[in-house]
Amino acid sequence: MCPRSRSNAASESGDGDERAVIRSLLRIVVAVVLIGVLALGTTVVAPIVLEDIGIDSEDFETPNVGSQPAPSSDPPPAGERNPAVTDPDDPGESAYETDVETVDSPTVEDFVHAKVNERRADHGLEPLEWDGTIASVGRAHGYDMAQRDYFAHVNPDDEAPMDRFTDVDNYCRGYGENIALTWVDRRVEQPGDADGTVRYQTAEGLAEGLVNQWMNSTAHRRAILEQGETPDWDRGGVGVYIDDDGAVYASHNFCLER
């Protein structure tokens, strides 16, 4: 995309063309992926950041641009944060400062876990039990993706989600993974609305956006709601890593116990 400015009738036509290009690019689906013992899912590109492609997001017409959300409420605690077994590559807490609040990874993880269980309850499913070890494995994978600049289930060492988990522990006989990539405090495409954008400035808003990304993708929604050939999960863990530039690598990992 390119900056938008012109005048008179000819420019109005040009502006319309540019808006069409903007909307076409914004229709690219946000990055959400699923894989597990059933080897399901495909990788798609990450959400477009308007500023990165020369567009001033304040000039793009979206509802409530410039308004700030209320700070996050207190999330329901997901569960044990210091399990006996953790991934040695787990980076621990990460955070990014916005004008509204400090968005920190533990709070985002708590909110994601709660919101996933809310979606499950809406479909008559039992809540997933929080698993700190599984969350640690997911968090380590997010950190690895940020450090080695890739976005995929299979890392450059050819390790898949189940491989990464069994390197740490081995009590899951079925294992699944949803991953997502987005940004905090930068305007990106709004999940489920190709013509809308959103700026995540709170942990609660970011968590809602991440869950909406997954729920707006058929394969990832099936993983959450145990539909199709997806196993009936017993446990789950959410791992979030927030990079210094505001990039957010998130995973929701699922476990069917032995």
Average pLDDT rating:
82
Largest sheet composition? 5 strands, mixed
User: Percent of residues in helical segments?
Assistant: 25-40%
Total strands: the figure is: 9
Looking at the structure, what is the overall shape?
globular
CATH hierarchy class name of the domain at 98-256: Alpha Beta
Proportion of β residues?
A: 15-25%
Structure description:
The chain starts with 7 loop residues before the first helix and ends with a strand. It is of the alpha+beta class. Residues 1-13, 20-51 and 53-65 have low confidence and may be disordered. Helices cover 31% and strands 22% of the residues. A five-stranded mixed β-sheet has the order 1-5-9-8-4. It has a domain at 98-256: CAP (Pathogenesis-related Protein p14a, 3-Layer(aba) Sandwich), CATH 3.40.33. A hairpin with a 4-residue loop joins strand 8 (235-242) and strand 9. InterPro entries: CAP_dom, CAP_sf. Keywords: Membrane, Transmembrane, Transmembrane helix. The chain crosses the membrane at residues 28-50. Residues 87-102 have a biased composition (Acidic residues). It comes from Haloterrigena alkaliphila.
